[in-house]
C-alpha cells in the first residue's frame, strides 16, 4: 500500500509507467467536467471509475483483487481507507469472476483527501469508503484499475 501526494508523481515515472500515467491523468483532469462513469484508458485492463456518493458506513470487511492494482483518489471530500496485508486477514467470501475477495481482520487506516492518493496492490486487503468521525461527507472519487 502506498499513500502519497500528486506533488510527488515524478517518483513513479521510471519504476511504474502505468501508475505514473494514471497519476498524470489525476493531476491533469478537471473532474468537474467529467460525468460519473467508467472510462477506458487502454481498454478494460487500464480504466478508471468516477463516482459520487454519501458515505454511510463504518468498517465491515476488507476487499482485495488478484488481477488489478487500485489507485483511489478523492476528487472532493474525505475518506478513511482501511488496510492490512492479506497474510494477516481471513478470507470470508470469493468472487474470482469479478476479481474480488473479501476478508475479515484488524485494520490500520489512512485518511485520503486533498491531493493524496492510495495505491493498493494484490497483496493489500483494503477497505475504502469508511466514513470519518466528522462525516458523513458527500464525496466524489476516482478509482483507477490497472491490470497486472
Beta fraction of the residues?
over 45%
Largest sheet: 6 strands, antiparallel
Roughly how many Å is the radius of gyration?
15 Å
If helices are DSSP runs of H or I spanning 4 or more residues, what is the number of helices? Answer: 1
- Strand neighbour order, sheet with most strands: 1-10-5-12-3-2
> Low-confidence segments, ≥5 residues, pLDDT <50?
none
The helix fraction, in percent, is under 10%
Q: Give the CA-based shape.
A: globular
Regarding quaternary structure, how should these chains be classified? single chain
Order of helices and strands: EHEEEEEEEEEEE
Topology overview:
Elements: E1 2-5, H1 17-28, E2 37-40, E3 46-54, E4 62-64, E5 68-76, E6 79-85, E7 90-95, E8 100-104, E9 108-112, E10 116-120, E11 124-130, E12 138-147
Antiparallel strand pairs: 1-10, 2-3, 3-12, 4-8, 5-10, 5-12, 6-9, 6-11, 7-8
List descriptors.
six-stranded antiparallel β-sheet, 148 residues, globular, mainly beta, three-stranded antiparallel β-sheet
What is the structure about, briefly put?
This protein is mostly beta strands and 148 residues long. It has one helix and twelve strands, in the order E-H-E-E-E-E-E-E-E-E-E-E-E.
Structure report:
This protein has 148 residues and is mainly beta. Helices cover 8% and strands 50% of the residues. The chain is built from 1 helix and 12 strands. Strands 1-10-5-12-3-2 form a 6-stranded antiparallel beta sheet, with helices on one face. The protein has a 3-stranded antiparallel beta sheet with strand order 4-8-7, with no helix packed on it. The mean pLDDT is 94.
Amino acid at each position: 500500500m502506498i499513500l502519497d501526494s500528486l506533488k510527488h508523481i515524478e517518483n513513479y515515472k521510471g519504476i511504474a509507467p502505468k501508475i505514473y500515467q494514471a497519476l498524470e491523468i489525476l493531476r491533469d483532469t478537471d473532474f468537474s467536467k467529467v460525468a460519473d462513469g467508467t472510462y477506458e484508458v487502454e481498454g478494460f485492463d487500464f480504466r478508471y471509475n468516477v463516482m459520487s456518493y454519501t458515505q454511510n458506513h463504518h468498517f465491515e470487511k476488507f476487499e482485495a483483487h488478484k488481477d488489478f492494482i487500485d489507485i483511489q483518489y478523492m476528487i472532493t471530500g474525505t475518506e478513511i481507507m482501511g488496510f492490512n496485508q492479506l497474510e494477516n486477514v481471513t478470507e470470508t467470501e470469493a468472487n474470482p469472476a469479478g476479481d474480488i475477495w473479501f476478508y475479515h481482520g484488524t485494520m490500520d487506516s489512512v485518511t485520503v483527501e486533498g491531493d493524496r492518493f492510495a495505491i493498493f496492490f494484490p497483496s493489500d486487503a483494503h477497505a475504502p469508503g469508511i466514513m470519518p468521525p466528522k462525516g458523513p461527507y458527500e464525496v466524489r472519487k476516482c478509482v483507477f484499475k490497472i491490470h497486472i
